[in-house]
Amino acid sequence: MAIVIDLDVVMAQRKMGVKELAEKIDITMANLSILKNNKAKAVRFTTLDALCRELGCQPGDILKYVPDEEKDSDEEK
Predict the structure, then answer these.
(1) 67 contacts 2 by C-beta, under 8 angstroms
(2) What is the DSSP letter of 38?
(3) Residue 69, pLDDT score
(4) Strand ranges, E, within 25-65
(5) Is the Cβ–Cβ distance between 40 and 30 less than 8 Å?
(6) Which of 2, 6, 13, 32 could form a cystine bridge with 22, CB 3.0-4.6 A?
(7) What is the DSSP letter of 2?
(8) b/e map 34-73, b = 16+ CB within 10 Å
(9) Could you give the C-alpha distances from 49 to 25, 56, 68, 70, in angstroms and in order?
(10) Domains within the chain, CATH numbers bracketed
(11) First to last CA, the chain
(12) pLDDT digits (tens, 9 = 90+) for 25-73
């Protein structure tokens, strides 16, 4: 997949943990961890809206397009 979720980076910049953010956006810690660890296959717009609201960011701060060949070379490192 060519879309990468950089939620962990944004959370670290805001010094916010999974438990705190999960409570603020009313999502389970397990589902937030799936997003944070880039394992999600989809993101609801309502979830993206809540993430941006609580983290004070734009969707582009969380989601990034990486061509498959670039992503593959990053994973080999």
Answers:
(1) yes
(2) T
(3) 73
(4) 63-65
(5) no
(6) 32
(7) -
(8) bbbeeebeebeeebeebbbebbebeeebbeeeeeeeeeee
(9) 9, 10, 26, 28
(10) 3-76 (1.10.260.40)
(11) 18
(12) 999 999 999 999 999 999 999 999 999 999 999 999 999 999 877 555 5
Contact 18, 31 (CB under 8 A): no
pLDDT at 1 over 90: no
pLDDT of residue 53: 97
Question: Using alpha carbons only, how large is the chain's radius of gyration in Å?
Answer: 13
Question: What are the structure tokens assigned to 45, written together?
Answer: 């717009």
What is the DSSP secondary-structure string of 12-32? HHTT--HHHHHHHHT--HHHH
| Mean pLDDT value of segment 16-27 | 96
Query: At 2, which amino acid appears?
Result: A
